[in-house]
Design goal:
73% helix; transmembrane helix; mainly alpha; cell membrane
Length: 287
């Protein structure tokens, strides 16, 4: 039995019916997946519940583990860099909060179709359903970890204002980019099984190259490393971290970070849509 993406009453171009490679089918996959929000919303929540099944604290372990790691790294690096803990600990904690979302979309995105082999082969559902499920699950992790930020803002108050509301569209932009990353990495990794370990290694390297547990200001204050500090601008993840971290910490909003992330969003989604258009129909045979 062949499953098509056509809705009753749709006027279909005959050339697109015979060809699995069409922009119409690619956009229809994204639209159908979005319409199935109750399904992937439920599955994403069940993923978290299943992970902490029979645990006393349940999903609260997400926030606890995040808080412990942030506290340990904050104390260590604030002492090494001789920076006030009240300033550096929120910087590290929020950076880790954002990085966990980014790395989750990248690492789990590279195996999103491989991990759902059974559903893809036997359930006539759009591929984007698995992408939405992944991004939703990472969003739930992010919201759980946001408790750590709330506690830090109480213990170490920052000058939060109306600009802090920019964290909402900033995270929405982050989630939109997480979706195209998962599509692109997922399809490539399904075709070439050597891709996931490569992505894992590169992601670990990017963590150290991104100012998560260190600050650009530290390098900028050092005359010998000032020029090298400017190279961090070449790291795309840096811009996504900053558009979320700056409003959450009440820092000055830098417009160029938003401009760079906007350009990356357009370029990334263009590449993902091309990949989805050309190889969407082959994923079921590759898994």
């Amino acid at each position: 039995m062949t499953v098509t993406d056509n809705e009753p009453g749709d006027v279909v171009d005959p050339s697109e019916v015979s060809s699995p490679r069409s922009w119409r089918r690619a956009f229809a996959d994204l639209a159908q997946g979005w319409r199935q929000r109750p399904l992937w919303g439920y599955l994403g929540w069940q993923d978290i519940k299943q992970r902490y099944r029979r645990s006393v604290l349940g999903p609260l372990w997400i926030s606890i583990s995040m808080g412990v790691i942030a506290l340990g790294l904050g104390i260590l690096y604030s002492a090494l860099f001789q920076i006030s803990l009240a300033t550096f600990l929120p910087h590290v904690a929020v950076g880790l909060l954002i990085w966990n979302f980014v790395s989750g979309c990248i690492l789990e995105g590279s195996e999103v179709f491989i991990a759902n082999e059974g559903l893809i082969k036997f359930l006539p559902a759009p591929l984007s359903l698995h992408i939405y499920r992944l991004v939703w699950r990472q969003t739930l992790f992010f919201l759980h970890n946001l408790v750590v930020w709330v506690v830090l803002m109480v213990v170490f108050p920052h000058p939060l204002g109306f600009s802090s509301l920019l964290a909402v569209p900033a995270f929405a932009l982050l989630a939109v980019n997480g979706a195209w990353v998962a599509i692109l990495a997922g399809i490539l990794a399904t075709r070439f099984r050597d891709i996931p370990p490569i992505i894992a290694s590169v992601t670990q390297l990017v963590f150290y190259l991104t100012p998560i547990v260190w600050s650009v200001d530290i390098l900028s204050d050092n005359p010998a490393a000032r020029e090298r500090a400017q190279l961090v601008e070449l790291n795309p993840v840096f811009h996504f971290v900053e558009i979320v971290r700056q409003p959450l910490l009440g820092q000055e909003i830098v417009g160029r970070y938003w401009l760079v992330t906007g350009v990356i969003t357009v370029v990334g989604w263009t590449a993902a849509l091309v990949c989805l258009r050309n190889y969407r129909s082959r994923v079921a045979y590759w898994v």
